């Protein structure tokens, strides 16, 4: 048994026709983590998840889920992971109760150990337990997929774009439940295009681009790698243009507000403010904006594209 929830080494996938989706992925996802797996469309995230789920055959490399090699011990590996896919996939003429019961049966969960109503209550679908799944709203269907992924009580839960098309209230309910699962020890792997979600939820993030991992670190460390910082300065008189001699990326926002974007690795705020003072301007107020995960994401995917 390894100490990683998911361990991937040299993972490659080339589809018929020559399209290479994965180019030697190496990735360790720690047990008990809330791990973000980010990347632009077509980066290879879903291919990687589908390989772990046993839905796509890899071309080369190895992958382990909860210590079980997906080739040598496929049943144990599949039993250790629950996948919430992007697509809303289930039988529209089954009720949520029937959907979970069937899924539990496929995983060999004895009737006495099934948690069907418990899971439906957890995802706020208990009152919809016996209606046709096709009558559920998009957000309800998303939550049903989460419950479906948990019927066999897997130690690893993968959420592939779980909040796409979900309204704000339902999204908050979903994350509240995911945090509860994580707090109870479940390793959660999240892919999302809502980068603010990943920044708020994940303690560690890997960024995949063009089939390769271009970054993998603690969220706080990744955010610290962003070079740009923004200074918002209110000056003591009206301006019609940016005074000469200021930072190259200085913009006038309103009559008295200058926004200065600078590389914090080469300069500091004091030097920027000294330049403003040297231009004959008095400083009334100062605010700063640090780079967020979106800035880091764009910087990494552009530079490695």
TrEMBL record:
Gene3D superfamilies: P-loop containing nucleotide triphosphate hydrolases (3.40.50.300). It holds the Pfam family ABC_tran. Residues 6-235 form the ABC transporter domain. GO terms for molecular function: ATP binding; ATP hydrolysis activity. Keywords: ATP-binding, Nodulation, Nucleotide-binding, Transport. SUPFAM superfamilies: P-loop containing nucleoside triphosphate hydrolases (SSF52540). SMART domains: AAA (SM00382). PANTHER family: ABC TRANSPORTER ATP-BINDING PROTEIN, ABC TRANSPORTER ATP-BINDING PROTEIN NATA. Belongs to the ABC transporter superfamily. This is Multidrug ABC transporter ATP-binding protein.
